[in-house]
């Protein structure tokens, strides 16, 4: 009889401890949920429109500015590995978007239902593990290279400003060239119309046009010279 009572007490104690354990979500999940819920960091990490997945928009800034304040490290790859151990899935190939059925916006109480998986990498397809790790390492290397060479940003900034100035100069030169070409076309049109008027004014004898007077020839020569000069400027 005493043995049965002891067994019942042991079962109750075990169930009670299990309930307390499940009522307290893991620290990693609490911190991650708090991070995603924080509106000031939405440009770095935020929920999707439905609140069923979260997206890391800027992994470099996340690793550099946010992870050290919560997880005491700045390794984005470690953050991704932790998500995988709790059963999160990367659901988009073009961005860092993660999903778990019990990780939702405004429902912190569901975090108690998320259990840490053991030997998670042996349960996932090997190709998915390699892809996730490769992408994580690529982002980490990119973050390291950016933080180790701040002078490159200055060089790129100056180069960008120089290209903008050159582009502005080219636009001004193009506008000037277009203006000259329009003036040339107007001069040609005026010259042709003037020539037509002069030809119609030439005297005609027995059906044959006579030569122009000396003054009219000089006018045509001046038109030709002006047209040639303007053409050479375009």
Automatic annotation (TrEMBL):
Gene3D superfamilies: Winged helix-like DNA-binding domain superfamily/Winged helix DNA-binding domain (1.10.10.10)
InterPro entries according to UniProt: HSF_DNA-bd, WH-like_DNA-bd_sf, WH_DNA-bd_sf
Pfam families: HSF_DNA-bind
GO CC list: nucleus
Domain HSF-type DNA-binding: 67-91
SMART domains for the chain: HSF
Superkingdom of origin organism: Eukaryota
A biological-process GO annotation: regulation of transcription by RNA polymerase II
Keywords: DNA-binding, Nucleus, Phosphoprotein, Stress response, Transcription, Transcription regulation
GO MF, one annotated term: DNA-binding transcription factor activity
Annotated localization: Nucleus
Family statement: Belongs to the HSF family.
Quaternary data: Homotrimer.
Entry protein name: Heat stress transcription factor B-3-like protein
Organism field: Cinnamomum micranthum f. kanehirae
Taxon lineage: Eukaryota, Viridiplantae, Streptophyta, Embryophyta, Tracheophyta
